[in-house]
């Protein structure tokens, strides 16, 4: 038996060894390694060789995925946690950061924003056509008319980008004087997820999702007459900056968007010559030195590039923002004055208004039987109309009321249709309140708010023979009030740096019409056979490219403006009140929104062209900001690529000194029950304004909440020439309030023509 026991022992050891090897391989993940470029040993003549040697010192098997040289210095590679820790201690290594996975944040807007009058707004010396907007997203469907280059001159001589080819993407056919560049980045994605399945998506810049085509055409698409989705929203579709050029960088795939690819794309976009970067994607919140988008954006800003990002779709919860670095323009979403009403008419004669983009055969005018999905299922979650949960014998020929949540809104319609249902009413629950987003359903369907949904359910449960029908109202414009802040739009306060108010502003992001991919239907579902030139979708993904295009518009009018000046102009001219009075509403609450919802307010492009004054910001300002956060030398170098920079120990750094166009003031609550008390705390912020208009005198006015006192010194600033700078200090004083208290106000400087406005946000913690 001894030989047999020995054999069994050897087999057991082999099994355990194999398991250990598999486990070790499974633990490997992609890390981004930030290097101090200036510390390269003299033995190396090229940084890539040094990076490779550093990697080889901890792993013989690992290979460099990307080397970064423009928005970051360093490389990415697959490593085990132990190898990553070992690499952190190698000479010249600033930091080793695990890769993050990011997700996408998913016609009439030019008129709504006042850009239909653009010809009278733009200076004769406009250089808008020299600006290239780089869009990092899912790629592009280049055949769409939004990329027509008619009327555009030669590609700017400074442009260095290329049109990368794939088996379904030919450079000669795809790129032109409008779409000047197209690249794809998949190495990081494939290192984590395996090879791209080319039966499902193209390993090229081609967009099989639709999101990237929608965002890039929103930012800088050419004017396309007679645009519509299935007859809805008919009119001329145009981007925010019709004369700017577009370059696409495909970084998002079926399994997500990976930070190693995003950083490589930002690196190449700056090298190519983009003047604006647009990123409608985001991940979780983290310190700036661990956030690849923040790092890439910092060094883009340092090279004069404006970076705008979506705020996220995690609202209306508090502190749900993405992309909160102060050098990024963080964009939330609001509605426009256009809607697509669809009316639920009940058997008792009552009717309720919803929204829909359904365009097929209408329901009969006489009501059909109505059933609640929760009563037509054996599943515990059948009320949500999940796949396979509805009983055909219960729903056949009936209108089915489904609750919103968990699965996609349009998928619920497929479930109802496949079970034999005649139509669908999609009812919001408390999670979505009164927010309505229109969808191009494949069966007669409408979405209604929570209140209407509850009323319909009440009828349905009380009437022994409930009936309903749905009538479709087409496109309606002039809807008021508008804008309102979308419930899905992510909110502040800023959890990374509470003293920086985010989001920065809001822009149109609900029911936006723009170009669409030819490989997927308007619902994005595989079962949707329809193909459309345009689509209507919603999200901060849609609001972000509005601001990106407007940034290109401003850069064209003012090519000498810094990214900080562009951002300031957009923020200080944004509006927080409706023209007739009253604050912009929050659809989630039905009450006036706050700066934690909309930042400085809703973007106003005509006013942004001539802001009067701006709060400018430089790289040095942001370095001081990082010092104020008590970042170490290595952490600052990871963000800024400045390995020789150190904070001055003799200097008193303060986040409140950052020359930001908004104010976030955090007071500490007094100790004791409730946190109340009579002791007054005073916090001072210093700001500097730069004149970008005619000479004039500006006077300050403050709207302060009763909880705080605000004093501006001096309260009057005179400017004799363009480019002149003047500083002022604001003292904020307040007694202690219960922890969690928030209050808001507004500071405005005006010369009688211009209003340079900043929101004030106060918190007690």
TrEMBL record:
<dbReference type="InterPro" id="IPR037045">
    <property type="entry name" value="S8pro/Inhibitor_I9_sf"/>
</dbReference>
<dbReference type="InterPro" id="IPR041469">
    <property type="entry name" value="Subtilisin-like_FN3"/>
</dbReference>
<dbReference type="InterPro" id="IPR046450">
    <property type="entry name" value="PA_dom_sf"/>
</dbReference>
<dbReference type="InterPro" id="IPR015500">
    <property type="entry name" value="Peptidase_S8_subtilisin-rel"/>
</dbReference>
<dbReference type="Pfam" id="PF02225">
    <property type="entry name" value="PA"/>
</dbReference>
<feature type="compositionally biased region" description="Basic and acidic residues">
    <location>
        <begin position="197"/>
        <end position="212"/>
    </location>
</feature>
<keyword id="KW-0325">Glycoprotein</keyword>
<dbReference type="InterPro" id="IPR045051">
    <property type="entry name" value="SBT"/>
</dbReference>
<dbReference type="InterPro" id="IPR036852">
    <property type="entry name" value="Peptidase_S8/S53_dom_sf"/>
</dbReference>
<dbReference type="GO" id="GO:0048731">
    <property type="term" value="P:system development"/>
</dbReference>
<comment type="similarity">
    <text>Belongs to the peptidase S8 family.</text>
</comment>
<protein>
    <recommendedName>
        <fullName>Subtilisin-like protease</fullName>
    </recommendedName>
</protein>
<feature type="region of interest" description="Disordered">
    <location>
        <begin position="195"/>
        <end position="222"/>
    </location>
</feature>
<dbReference type="Pfam" id="PF00082">
    <property type="entry name" value="Peptidase_S8"/>
</dbReference>
<keyword id="KW-0645">Protease</keyword>
<feature type="active site" description="Charge relay system">
    <location>
        <position position="137"/>
    </location>
</feature>
<feature type="domain" description="Subtilisin-like protease fibronectin type-III">
    <location>
        <begin position="657"/>
        <end position="761"/>
    </location>
</feature>
<feature type="domain" description="PA">
    <location>
        <begin position="381"/>
        <end position="456"/>
    </location>
</feature>
<feature type="active site" description="Charge relay system">
    <location>
        <position position="541"/>
    </location>
</feature>
<keyword id="KW-0720">Serine protease</keyword>
<dbReference type="InterPro" id="IPR023828">
    <property type="entry name" value="Peptidase_S8_Ser-AS"/>
</dbReference>
<keyword id="KW-0865">Zymogen</keyword>
<feature type="signal peptide">
    <location>
        <begin position="1"/>
        <end position="23"/>
    </location>
</feature>
<feature type="domain" description="Inhibitor I9">
    <location>
        <begin position="30"/>
        <end position="105"/>
    </location>
</feature>
<dbReference type="InterPro" id="IPR000209">
    <property type="entry name" value="Peptidase_S8/S53_dom"/>
</dbReference>
<dbReference type="InterPro" id="IPR003137">
    <property type="entry name" value="PA_domain"/>
</dbReference>
<keyword id="KW-0378">Hydrolase</keyword>
<dbReference type="GO" id="GO:0006508">
    <property type="term" value="P:proteolysis"/>
</dbReference>
<dbReference type="InterPro" id="IPR010259">
    <property type="entry name" value="S8pro/Inhibitor_I9"/>
</dbReference>
<keyword id="KW-0732">Signal</keyword>
<keyword id="KW-0964">Secreted</keyword>
<dbReference type="Pfam" id="PF17766">
    <property type="entry name" value="fn3_6"/>
</dbReference>
<feature type="active site" description="Charge relay system">
    <location>
        <position position="211"/>
    </location>
</feature>
<dbReference type="GO" id="GO:0004252">
    <property type="term" value="F:serine-type endopeptidase activity"/>
</dbReference>
<dbReference type="Pfam" id="PF05922">
    <property type="entry name" value="Inhibitor_I9"/>
</dbReference>
<dbReference type="InterPro" id="IPR034197">
    <property type="entry name" value="Peptidases_S8_3"/>
</dbReference>
<dbReference type="GO" id="GO:0005576">
    <property type="term" value="C:extracellular region"/>
</dbReference>
<feature type="domain" description="Peptidase S8/S53">
    <location>
        <begin position="129"/>
        <end position="601"/>
    </location>
</feature>
């Amino acid at each position: 038996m001894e030989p047999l026991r020995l054999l069994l022992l050897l087999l057991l050891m082999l099994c355990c060894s194999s398991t250990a090897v598999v486990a070790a391989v499974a633990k490997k993940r992609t890390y981004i390694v930030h290097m101090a470029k200036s510390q390269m040993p003299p033995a190396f003549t090229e940084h890539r060789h040094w990076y490779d040697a550093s990697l080889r010192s901890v792993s013989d098997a690992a290979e460099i995925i990307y080397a970064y040289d423009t928005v970051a210095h360093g490389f990415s590679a697959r490593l085990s946690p132990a190898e990553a820790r070992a690499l952190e201690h190698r000479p010249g290594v600033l930091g080793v950061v695990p890769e993050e996975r990011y997700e996408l944040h998913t016609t009439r807007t030019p008129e709504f924003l006042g850009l239909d009058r653009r010809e009278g707004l733009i200076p004769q010396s406009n250089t808008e056509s020299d600006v290239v907007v780089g869009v990092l997203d899912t790629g592009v469907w280049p055949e769409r008319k939004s990329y027509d280059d008619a009327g555009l001159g030669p590609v700017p001589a400074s442009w260095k980008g290329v049109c990368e080819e794939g088996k379904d993407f030919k450079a000669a056919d795809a790129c032109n004087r409008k779409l000047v560049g197209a690249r794809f980045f998949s190495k990081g994605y494939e290192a984590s997820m395996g090879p791209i399945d080319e039966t499902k998506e193209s390993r090229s810049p081609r967009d099989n999702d639709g999101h990237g085509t929608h965002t890039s055409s929103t930012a800088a698409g050419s004017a396309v007459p007679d645009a519509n989705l299935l007859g809805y929203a008919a009119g001329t579709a145009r981007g925010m900056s019709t004369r700017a050029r577009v370059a696409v960088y495909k970084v998002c795939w079926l399994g997500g968007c990976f930070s190693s690819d995003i950083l490589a794309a930002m690196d190449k976009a700056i090298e190519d010559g983009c003047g604006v970067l647009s990123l409608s994607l985001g991940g979780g919140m983290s310190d700036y030195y661990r956030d690849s988008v923040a790092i890439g954006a910092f060094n883009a800003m340092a090279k004069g590039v404006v970076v705008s990002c979506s705020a996220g779709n995690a609202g209306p919860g508090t502190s749900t923002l993405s992309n909160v670095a102060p050098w990024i323009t963080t964009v939330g979403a609001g509605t426009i004055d256009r809607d697509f009403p669809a009316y639920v008419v009940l058997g008792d004669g009552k009717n309720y208004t919803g929204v829909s983009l359904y365009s097929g055969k209408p329901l009969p005018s006489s009501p059909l039987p109505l059933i609640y999905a929760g009563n037509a299922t054996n599943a515990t979650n059948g009320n949500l109309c999940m796949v396979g949960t509805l009983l055909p014998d219960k729903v056949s020929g009936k209108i089915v009321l489904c609750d919103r949540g968990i699965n996609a809104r349009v998928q619920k319609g497929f479930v109802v249709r496949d079970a034999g249902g005649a139509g669908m009413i999609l009812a919001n629950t408390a999670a979505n309140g009164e927010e309505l987003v229109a969808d191009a359903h494949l069966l007669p369907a409408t979405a209604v708010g929570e209140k209407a949904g509850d009323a319909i359910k009440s009828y349905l449960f009380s009437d022994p023979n409930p009936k309903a029908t749905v009538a479709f109202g087409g496109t309606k414009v002039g809807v008021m009030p508008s804008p309102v802040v979308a419930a899905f739009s992510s909110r502040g306060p800023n959890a990374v740096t509470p003293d920086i108010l985010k989001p920065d502003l809001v822009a149109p992001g609900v029911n936006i019409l723009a170009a669409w991919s030819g490989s997927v239907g308007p619902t994005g579902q595989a079962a949707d056979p329809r193909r459309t030139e345009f689509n209507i979708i919603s999200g901060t993904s849609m609001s972000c490219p509005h601001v990106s295009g407007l940034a290109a518009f401003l850069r064209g009018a003012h090519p000498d403006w810094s990214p900080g000046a562009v951002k300031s102009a957009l923020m200080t001219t944004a509006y927080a009140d409706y023209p007739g009075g009253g604050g912009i509403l929050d659809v989630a609450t039905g009450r006036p929104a706050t700066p934690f919802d909309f930042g400085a307010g809703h973007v106003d492009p005509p006013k942004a062209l001539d802001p009067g004054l701006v709060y400018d910001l430089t790289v040095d300002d942001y370095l001081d900001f990082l010092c104020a956060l008590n970042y170490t030398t290595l952490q600052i170098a990871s963000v800024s690529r400045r390995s020789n920079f150190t904070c001055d120990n003799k200097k008193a750094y303060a986040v409140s000194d950052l020359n930001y166009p908004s104010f976030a003031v955090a007071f500490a609550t007094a100790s004791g029950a409730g946190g109340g008390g009579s002791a007054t705390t005073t916090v001072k912020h210093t700001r500097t304004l730069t004149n970008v208009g005619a000479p004039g005198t500006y006077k300050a006015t403050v709207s302060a909440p009763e909880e705080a006192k605000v004093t501006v010194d001096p309260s009057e600033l005179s400017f004799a020439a363009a480019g002149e700078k003047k500083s002022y200090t604001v003292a904020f004083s307040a007694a202690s309030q219960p922890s969690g208290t928030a209050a808001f106000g507004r500071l405005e400087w005006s010369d009688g023509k211009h209003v340079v406005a900043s929101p004030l946000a106060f918190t007690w913690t």
